């Protein structure tokens, strides 16, 4: 009988921890989002859809090189640092940190050289010209700074320095806008590559500044024996995953480019960026705080199941109303954030929003595979996801236009969710809780209704239906969250917001 209150307290504490980290990450993400929107608006106005398409493709190239050459050192470092800290092995943690940082410098340098060396063929294959060779050579520096930043943020994330990570996020976003304004005004498309380099440099410098203040971070001048081999072994899976994920994103953009033109690639990038604005807060919170917490408890399958269900519940409640609001305001969002020229991206945005909702449901389960260190299973699921995503995009985009890319993304997470659930169910006994099943059904019906309204009703009637569903799901989520966590234990900013809208806390 005595275990009941203890379990309840543990659950309340876990929910409080999830909401606290989400609030911190969310606050920084709102600020970062504001400046990101300013930068996107500048791209849209000064460069137009075709210029935004070029930015998208160049950014995707950097992502692919970072994913391949980085060898997953940053992500495997997070796991090893979190595990060492959870076990109280500070000496090993310091050795891991030293190894991660040295390896990041070596790999970042190699990555920059590789991109510069392949600039000519990459430019010809992607843009059917050599106009972007100089830009790609310069972007080798962006690769270096991105990999160095991953090494520093691995330290912050592995030790769960959420506030410092939030500050890095804000500083990077502000710096990108401050630099972007004059560069784009004077150089237009010629500013794209220098801007990406400066943004990566600002991120690395900010992460480096805060990582130096972490206790135990600088006590070991030498890496732990055998640590590099362990990091690389774990990093192989992350490398393959990163390559497949970024490669798939690049491939889909290339499919859109080759089938529909550079302007359509700009529409795709616009819709993709807006679709990830709100739910990105939830995803960032998962990677920032949930992953290290899950890794620390990875030996206990019961604890793992509990943590995943709790994270899934909070994530769905936070993301659901925002996804429906994004679908409802899709046309307004792409017009305001970009320009009226981007109107064709609205219907694609609704498809991507549906996929993002499924992604929120699938991601916490996927972290089980990562935290357990099941490299082969992880790689297999990523290969399957890439084949599904790229294959469906190649089949649907030529027939249905850019909306086909959104349909492919939605179908990807239908399939991926089923695959991952079957794996974790059989491997460690994970099962979706009754509460989460009911939440999934509720939000599934609401999302489907909002989406269908824009397919079968006049625009203003569909907007009215979507607005009603947004309000309904928002109230449902609010009161559901207040039942999970005592109002007095909520973060002060959250209590202030609730009080300002008339909800007593």
Structural descriptors:
mainly alpha; disordered N terminus
What is this structure's SSE topology?
Blueprint lengths: L2 H67 L3 H14 L3 H28 L1 H9 L5 H26 L3 H26 L4 H20 L15 H34 L1 H35 L4 H28 L1 H8 L7 H28 L2 H26 L2 H26 L5 H23 L2 H26 L7 H9 L5
Protein name: Polysaccharide transporter, PST family
GO cellular component, one term: plasma membrane
Membrane topology: Multi-pass membrane protein
Could you please describe the fold and organization of this structure?
By secondary structure, this protein is an all-alpha fold. It has one domain (13-492). 86% of the residues lie in helices and 0% in strands. It has 17 helices and no strands. Helix 9 (262-296) runs antiparallel to helix 10, helix 11 packs across helix 12 (345-372) and helix 13 runs antiparallel to helix 14. The longest helix is centred in the first third of the chain and has 67 residues, at 3-69. The two termini are 31 Å apart.
Structure at a glance:
Keywords: Cell membrane, Membrane, Transmembrane, Transmembrane helix. This protein has 17 helices and no strands. The chain is an all-alpha fold.
Radius of gyration: 22 Å
| Helical amount | over 70%
Instruction: Give me the number of helical elements.
Output: 17
Which of globular, elongated, flat, extended, rod-shaped describes the shape? globular
* SSE-based structural type: mainly alpha
Q: Could you tell me the mean pLDDT? A: 79
Euclidean distance between termini CA atoms:
31 Å
């Amino acid at each position: 009988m005595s275990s009941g209150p203890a379990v309840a307290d543990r659950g309340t504490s876990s929910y409080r921890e999830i909401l606290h980290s989400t609030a911190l990450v969310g606050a920084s993400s709102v600020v970062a989002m504001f400046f990101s929107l300013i930068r996107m608006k500048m791209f849209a106005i000064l460069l137009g859809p075709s210029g935004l398409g070029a930015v998208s493709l160049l950014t995707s190239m950097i992502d692919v090189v970072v994913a391949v050459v980085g060898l997953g050192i940053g992500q495997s470092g997070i796991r090893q640092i979190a595990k060492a800290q959870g076990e109280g092995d500070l000496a090993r943690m310091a050795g891991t940190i030293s190894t991660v940082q040295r390896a990041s410098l070596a790999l970042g340098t190699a990555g920059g050289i590789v991109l510069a060396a392949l600039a000519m063929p990459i430019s010809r294959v992607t843009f059917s010209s050599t106009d972007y060779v100089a830009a790609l050579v310069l972007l080798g520096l962006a690769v270096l700074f991105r990999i160095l930043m991953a090494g520093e943020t691995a330290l912050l994330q592995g030790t769960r320095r959420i506030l410092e990570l939030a500050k890095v996020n804000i500083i990077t976003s502000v710096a990108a806008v401050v630099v972007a304004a004059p560069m784009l005004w004077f150089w237009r498309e010629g500013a794209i590559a220098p801007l990406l380099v400066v943004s990566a440099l600002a991120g690395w410098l900010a992460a480096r500044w805060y990582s130096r203040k972490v206790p135990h971070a600088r006590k070991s001048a030498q890496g732990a024996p055998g640590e590099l081999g362990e990091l690389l072994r774990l990093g192989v899976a992350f490398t393959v995953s990163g390559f497949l994920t970024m490669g798939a994103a690049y491939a889909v953009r290339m499919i859109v480019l080759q089938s529909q033109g550079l302007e359509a690639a700009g529409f795709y990038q616009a819709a993709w960026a807006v679709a990830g604005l709100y739910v990105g807060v939830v995803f960032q919170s998962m990677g920032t705080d949930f992953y290290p917490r899950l890794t620390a408890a990875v030996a206990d399958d019961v604890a793992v199941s509990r943590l995943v269900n709790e994270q899934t519940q909070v994530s769905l409640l936070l993301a659901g109303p925002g996804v429906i609001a994004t679908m409802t305001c899709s046309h307004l969002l792409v017009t305001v954030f970009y320009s009226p020229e981007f109107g064709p991206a609205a219907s694609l945005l609704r498809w991507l929003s549906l996929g993002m909702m499924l992604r929120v449901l699938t991601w916490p389960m996927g972290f089980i595979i990562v935290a357990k260190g099941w490299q082969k299973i992880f790689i297999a699921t990523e290969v399957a996801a890439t084949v599904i995503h790229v294959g469906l995009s190649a089949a649907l985009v030529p027939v249905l236009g850019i909306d086909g890319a959104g349909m492919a993304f939605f179908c990807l997470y239908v399939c991926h969710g089923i695959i991952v659930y079957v794996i974790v169910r059989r491997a460690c006994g994970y099962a979706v809780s009754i509460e989460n099943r009911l939440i999934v059904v509720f939000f599934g019906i609401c999302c489907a209704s909002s989406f269908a309204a824009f397919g079968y009703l006049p625009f203003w009637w569909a907007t009215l239906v979507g607005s009603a569903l947004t309000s309904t799901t928002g109230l449902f989520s609010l009161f559901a969250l207040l039942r999970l966590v005592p109002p007095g234990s909520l973060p002060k900013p959250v209590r202030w917001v609730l009080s300002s809208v008339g909800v007593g806390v």
